[in-house]
Please model this.
Amino acid sequence: TEFATAHELADLMGVTPKEIIQHCFTMGKFVTINQRLDKETIELVSLEFGFEAEFVSEVEATEVVELEDNEEDLVIRPPVVTIMGHVDHGKTSLLDYIRSSNVVAGESGGITQHIGAYEVSLDGDRKITFLDTPGHEAFTAMRARGAQVTDIVILVVSADDSVMPQTIEAINHSKAAEVPIVVAINKIDKPEANPEKIKTQLSEAGVLVEDWGGEYQCQEISAKQGTGIDELMEKVLTEAEIRELKANFSREVPARGIIVEAELDKGKGVVSTVLVQRGFLKVGDPFVAGHTMGRVRALMDERGKRIREAGPSQPVSVLGFEDLPQSGDEFTVMLSDKEAREIAQKRQIIRREHEFRRSTRVKLDSIARQI
Ligand code: GTP
Ligand code: MG
Model:
């Protein structure tokens, strides 16, 4: 089989064809610019430049067939929100406040479990799902894996501080991902709070707030005292309405979601939080998730309460994985265990091949050094 030429491969990786040719030469292969390279060469060269070659035909075999949603099954769903901001600007305090006020207002207690995401209910049966992942890492890690789960970013900036490096980073990440930002200027209860200064600095960072004629909604809050939080939630919901976020709520389609986090529990085995994005996930469903598979043994909400099913935008703790998935892995319900196993096995084979190539490269390297 023939694949890309040295020139095409160079373009894909943003290097010069000369670099490709030179590298092939060090591997003992003499190639010209328009010569088609074989698979192994492409893989080795890609790795050398920090890329992992993906061969579509091979990957296709492991892709879960993506079904078209019927228009009438698409219904408005709760937005998925990530809170970002500089260290100590009050991200955790904001989440804690929203969560605790929701628990008080909502159902009966139970010990709150950390499942990396949770759903809050507001007046009028409106909901917001929060991803409770530490800072930007999770967001960027998921994005790097091609998973876009966040619909809206709440950018927390402390009114007694300034726009800081991580504030800028959060703005850049959100913009790159084309995720809308709602600004929360926090700690306005502090005497030294200066929200106007923050707005000025934000405008310099490319975020012009609405009351200054910009496109970004902004709310002054105190995560400590609860000031402005209801208004902030309203602004998030307004942003969500503008986007018309929808999902397939049919009970007939196989559920699909994204792994938010996963860990190995001594007693329970793999415990993973899945954010459902389509359909309803049910106990007993066979599934494939990244390189692993399983069958849903139990579903739990963030209070550890067993639930029978979970629908779109609902985060749920899932038991029944054979192995540990990675955050950002897609999670898809399959028709049978057999089908799930087939796909998981194919993916494992491909992964092993990649690892094998990597070790070959190391050997080639050391041989080259010996020479
Ligand atoms: P990291 O997770 O370390 O990045 O910090 P964070 O952004 O989660 O900040 P956190 O919520 O931990 O708050 C940092 C400090 O600011 C804590 O001492 C909070 O009590 C305090 N704080 C947060 N919000 C407010 C507020 O609205 N007013 C006042 N006065 N203090 C606040
Ligand atoms: Mg925190």
Q: What stands out?
A: Confidence is low (pLDDT under 50) at residues 104-110. The chain has ten helices and 17 strands. The CA atoms of residues 58 and 350 lie 8 Å apart. The pocket of guanosine-5'-triphosphate (ligand 1) is lined by residues 85, 87-93, 186-187, 189-190, 222-224 (CB under 6 Å).
